[in-house]
Amino acid sequence: MSDNNNLIVYCEFEDGKIADVSLELLTKGRVLADRLGVKLEAIVIGDKLDGIEKQLFPFGADTVYKVEDKRLYPYTSNPHAAVLINLFKEIKPQICLMGATCIGRDLGPRVSSCLHSGLTADCTSLEIGDHKDPKTGKEYTDLLYQIRPAFGGNIVATIVNPECRPQMATVREGVMKKEIYNPDHKGNVVNLNASKYVSDADFVVEIIDRHIEKSKVNIKNSPIIVAGGYGVGSKENFQLLFDLAQTLGGEVGASRAAVDAGFIEHDRQIGQTGVTVRPKLYIACGISGQIQHIAGMQESSIIISVNNDPNAPINTIADYVITGDIEEVLPKLIKYYKKNSK
Amino acid sequence: MSLNIIVLAKQVPDTRNVGKDAMKEDGTINRAALPAIFNPEDLNALEQALRLKDKNPGSTVTILTMGLPRAAEVIREAIYRGADAGIVLTDRALGGADTLATSYSLAQAVKKFGKCDIILGGRQAIDGDTAQVGPQIAEKLGIPQVTYAEEILDLNNGYVTVKRRLENGVETVKAPLPCVVTVNGSAAECRPRNARRVMKYKYAVSPSEKEKLSDDLKKIVDERPYLQLAEWGAAYVDADPEQIGLAGSPTKVKNVESVVFTAKENLCFAGNDDAALENLIKELITNHTIG
Fold first, then answer.
1. Which residues in chain A come in under a pLDDT of 50?
2. Interface test with A, best of B171, B258, B280 (most A CBs within 10 A)
3. How far is B192 from chain A (nearest CA, A)?
4. Are B217 and B155 in contact (CB under 8 A)?
């Protein structure tokens, strides 16, 4: 089975600006669409969408669907799901990508349930390839390989949706790279009549209050990250990491285990269920190195691991391994930095 | 106002302790080989349910779980903490289900349960981290969903008001009942076990667990209906065989690989080797990584 239907990216925006994760997915979507020989489409649902396509065309979108209605912004589940469900029944995309955000992870399952299409959450890699069903022997060409760590990160699974369309996947911010495809690329805009896709009855959930703030923490773009794991031991000990980060001009990150233990807030979590980072320098303190964490930092240019366990898995991908207690090592790094920097 | 509250709970393998037998050849998880725990965020959901019950006397909290027969363990744990009853949805035919087939099966069980005002569950389970089952159940039941909930602020006149914790802020929404609410790990922690309830419900068992008890205990269970946990199969909830288990799952696992890192050549030294630490810092300054 092979199809010529297109690939569509659901694009999120806030304050008139398309979310980075959506642009990252367009970048990836462009590559996949070219590989399949199909068009790359984008859909934006909301209010005040004038000119929003200008942000999408440079990333390779051939078609931008716009669905505008005052009630469609801010996002609520049922109306956005209704638009996608009804539109997908018409245009039958073969692949639909969404950000693995609070919106995408709320919307994707609802759409996939209604269309009975498969959905894979938090993919770390997307590829096109063939598949042979081991039981029936039936062969499929050009499926979307949805690749993600599973099971606490102990394995990496490749998921396919052989029969159901669209093949849906969510991807976290920062996992794919955002790259301009062509600043002069132009596509066409399709304005859809909102009332054709969403009914009054879909507006059941009312937003009473909303406080959205830009995250104060910007680990994604920090060139230096000092990250702590469960081995840091306590909230108090994280102060050592903050001291080092401040000295070096970096940010503090954390593994999921440290966040789950309550040592540090969630928006600093690095890994498959946090953010993906690619800093110049990554100092991993007391992090054992589950694949879910490693998936989010392995492209760092230089990795230093500080751990009292010489056999910590993260040491295998580190450039420098310091075996010792963070209480001893971090203050010394600060001391030697202050001594040697001008 | 008394409420019928369902809490979706999952018994999950403790993914921090995964051995070699964890995966079966078909790429699905061999749950029998792993230590099993109460999915953490489902406990946060249980606490929200118990708070609703506290505020609305006469309400009942029923735990619905799908899994192996031993998943009755999570029902007992929830009852020790204040839940009233539980249902284990278990059947070989349900095995190997992806999130969609799971949602369908659970939605069928909710329908079978009958009148229910609100369905609570954790945002996601730690074995899959997908967060898909809650919204998919809502869709299957044709009711609204509120995901990423941190606190139920109010429930009145057929509406629930919920504070949601999003990646970059908070939102308060009002949704009509019945609806599905999935609760974040940032919500209040679940209350501990109550010692009296542990004593009272120690022998609360599902029918398949009852079989393994001594005759004396069987008799006690038979005499006391509150010790009888429900165990439902796929046919009992009128599940369409085409939509459950591996066969009803649109996503298929093509392959799984254990994770092996390509080891880098690295420089190792001890934390008390001051000269090596200073050299490292100097090197990073020289190559402009820092400074």
1. 1-2
2. B171
3. 18
4. no
**Token code pair at residue A308:** 């009292």
Residues of B in contact with A337 (CB under 8 A): 281, 285, 290-291
Q: Are residues A115 and A198 in the same domain?
A: yes
Is B254's CB within 8 Å of A160's CB? yes
Say which amino acid occupies B255: N
Domain with A266, as residue range(s), is 224-340
Closest residue by Cα to residue B255 from A49, A110, A159, A83? A159
**Type of residue at B52:** L
Q: Quick check: is A210 in a domain?
A: no
Q: Specify whether the CB–CB gap between B40 and B125 falls below 8 A.
A: no
Q: Tell me, yes or no, whether A287 and A162 share the same domain.
A: no
User: For residue A2, what pLDDT is reported?
Assistant: 46
Structure tokens at B213: 């008890």
pLDDT of residue B20: 56
Report the CATH number that the domain containing residue A153 is assigned in CATH: 3.40.50.620
Closest CA to A283 of A261, A260, A305: A305
| Assembly ipTM | 0.88
Instruction: Tell me the CATH number for domain B4-243.
Output: 3.40.50.620
Q: What is residue A1's predicted lDDT score, i.e. its pLDDT?
A: 41
On whether both A30 and A178 belong to a single domain, the answer is yes
Q: Which residues pair with A254 in a beta bridge?
A: A228, A269
In chain B, domain spans: 4-243
- B166 close contact with A: CB closer than 8 A: yes
Question: Could you report the per-residue pLDDT of A57-81, keeping only the tens digit for each?
Answer: 999 999 999 999 999 999 999 999 9
Over chain B (291 residues), the average pLDDT of each successive run of 10 is 96 71 64 83 98 97 96 97 98 95 98 97 90 97 98 97 91 98 94 97 96 95 96 97 95 83 79 92 89 77
User: Domain tally for chain A?
Assistant: 2
Instruction: Please indicate, yes or no, whether residues A186 and A274 belong to a single structural domain of this protein.
Output: no
HSE-CB for A208 with a 13 A CA cutoff: 12
Q: What is the CATH number of the domain that holds A252?
A: 3.40.50.1220
pLDDT of residue A37: 96
Query: Hey, what's the torsion of the CAs at A101, A103, A109, A115, to 10 degrees?
Result: -130
Cβ contact A119–B132 (<8 Å)? yes
What spatial distance separates the first Cα and last Cα of chain B, rounded to whole Å?
A: 64
